[in-house]
Amino acid sequence: MNARGPYAKGIVKREEILKTALKLFADKGYDKVSVREIAREAGLSQAGLLHHFSSKEELFLEALRRRDDHDGEFNERAREREHSIAHLIEAVDRNTDERGLVRLFVSMSAESTEEDSLAYSFFVDRYAWLRTEIANDVRRHQERSELAADLDPEDIASLLIAVADGMQLQWLLEPEKVDMPKLLRTLWALLQRA
User: Fold this and answer.
1) Fewer Cβ in 10 A, N or C end of the chain?
2) What is the Rg, in whole angstroms, of the alpha carbon atoms belonging to the chain?
3) What phi, psi does 115 have (nearest 5°)?
């Protein structure tokens, strides 16, 4: 049964706000976007927006989550709590079409290292989940003899994630010189040959 009435309209409006906020945060950066501007772009008053999100911080964290799962296929995998090296490479490939979102992610992940940061828990949880998922995939590759059994899965997972995230900064600075998906595939191929 489909949801109807005010509840369904609220869900649709909330998604519209998130889409608008994500675009504005990506285009201008978190600090340069006001709640008033997001509300105006979403066709709401500031009070109307704050009915759906209690603060700019809450809206921002939801926008970060949306940044991680904006692709429908990835959304489904995220709900199932599974991830893999192949999915990591796919995400890096998708990021080449999302310069503003990559810039937002890089800046906010760096700022989140302070425990009082609004995004601290988001990034701690995200990296813990991602390391576990990638390490589990490394183990599957080891069980199929596609990767050396003496490599530590957690170390390989951390290395792959670090390279994927670190390449984003290089790509933002010189996109014509840094082919992120190719470089991550090259690292994975080297690890498989080790």
Assistant:
1) N
2) 19
3) -60, -25
